[in-house]
Amino acid sequence: QVQLVESGGGLVQAGGSLRLSCTASGRTFSNYAMSWFRQAPGKEREFVATISWSDSSTYYADSAKGRFTISRDNAKNTVYLQMSRLNPEDTAVYYCAATRSGVKYWGQGTQVTVSS
Quick check: helix, strand or coil at residue 31? Predict the structure, then answer.
């Protein structure tokens, strides 16, 4: 089992920035690919970004490219999502996920609200 706790969400004005954090416990963090997803009201959960466990390569949804940066600190068992140039369409609950061998663990989510 992997336990994930997100933090860093909040209310921000359009054009602003936020940094989300997700701290893991329970298993060897460095063995897991880490991802961020989000779910807006009335919509399905969607992929935002992922970072590999092996070489920290990254991949982003088109909506996140150029504005969001995912990173990880294995010594702190933490993955980050730096978000900039936020707009109201980014309003959602953001979830982190840890994946290994097809098994995915989820955090409880953190709310991000972007006002216009």
Answer: helix
CA–CA separation, 111 and 40 (whole Å): 10
Runs of H (alpha helix) within the chain: none
In terms of C-beta density within 10 A (0-12 exposed, 13-18 middle, 19 or more buried), how is residue 98 classed? Answer: buried
Specify the pairing of strand 10-13 against strand 68-73. unpaired
- pLDDT number for residue 93: 98
Record the tokens describing residue 73, joined without a space: 């600190």
């989820």: which residue's tokens?
A: 106
Does 27 have pLDDT greater than 80?
no
Determine the average pLDDT of the residues in 68-97.
96
Rounded distance between C-alpha atoms, residue 72 and residue 89, angstroms: 25
Q: So what's the pLDDT on residue 38?
A: 98
Alpha carbon distance 77, 75 (integer Å): 6
Q: How many CB atoms lie within 10 A of CB 89?
A: 10
